[in-house]
Amino acid sequence: MSSFESKVQEALANPKNQGEIPDADAVGTVGSPDCGDMLRMWLKFTEKDGKRVIDRASFQAFGCQTAIAVASMATELLRGKTAEEAKILTASELSGDLGALPPMKIHCGQLVEGALRNALDNSDPSPQADAASAMAPTLASDLHRKRAGKIRIVPLD
Ligand code: FES
After folding, report:
1. Whose CA is nearest to atom 1 of ligand 1?
2. Which residues line ligand 1 (CB under 6 A)?
3. Is position 64 annotated as part of the catalytic site?
4. Which CATH number is 3-137's, of 3.40.50.1480, 3.30.2350.10, 3.20.20.70, 3.90.1010.10?
5. Is the pTM of the predicted complex or chain greater than 0.70?
């Protein structure tokens, strides 16, 4: 077993933050039409030192083990981050201790990144953001553009 696989197995033996946060401030759901996997992420914010930071993040995955392992890592390391800090995290940063994902598994990390971005997009308290997120095609086209020609991660209702 490669060290990547054993780290995935380790994360799966004790996955963190699985399941819904009932009073979440934001929810993001994405799917990969290529593998059929889906991932939903919940975020709960709190005020700390005058900043709005993520208090808890949780997930539910209908997908492969790598996506679950990355989501488990990601939801741990999101705690204490502002929305702005969380927004710029890449899939490989979200993978934490798992390290670089093998080429076949890169989209599994992108699924987690996509769910986070989708949740953050839905969490902006300004009314304009509500209007923007109601126009889902904006986000969809954004995601499509970034993954142009390769892997599609699409937001789901
Ligand atoms: Fe599709 Fe991992 S195989 S998310």
Report:
1. 35
2. 32, 35, 37, 63-64, 66-67, 107-108, 111
3. no
4. 3.90.1010.10
5. yes
